[in-house]
Amino acid sequence: MPLPARFPVVSPYGSRPEEDVMHRTPLVPHRAGTAAPPVRATLITLLIAVVVVAGARLVLAAAGMQVMGMAEYSTLIPVVAAALVPLRQTLVVGLANLAVGILAYGILLPSMSHASRITVITALVASLLVSLAVCRTRIAAEGHLKGLMVARERLTLLSEASSRVGGTLDVTRTAEELAEVAVRRFADHAAVDLFDPVLKGEEPAPGPHAGPVTLRRAARRSVPAALAAAAPPGRSTVTYCRGSVPALSLLRGVPVHGQFTGAADGEDYWPADPDGTDTQAPHSALAVPLRARGVTLGAALFTRSRHRDPFDAADVLLAQEIAARAAVCVDNARRYTHERATSVALQRSLLPQVVPPQPAVQAVARYLPADIGVGVGGDWYDVIPLSGARVALVVGDVVGHGIRASAAMGRLRAAVRTLADIDLPPDELLTHLDDIVIRLQSETSPTPAGGAEDAVADADVGEFVATCLYMVYDPITRRCTAARAGHPPPAVVRPGEGARFLDVPAGPPLGVGGLPFETSEVHLPEGSLLALYTDGLVESPRHCLDERLERLLEVLSEPKPTLQEACDHVLDMLVVDRTRDDIALVVARTRALDDRHTVAWELLEDLSEVARARDLASLQLAHWGLPEAAFLAELVVSELVTNAIRYGGSPVQLRLIRHDTLICEVSDGAHTAPHLRRARTFDEGGRGLFIVAQLAERWGTRQQSDGKTIWAELALPPATAPAPAPALATL
Question: pTM for this one?
Answer without folding.
Answer: 0.67
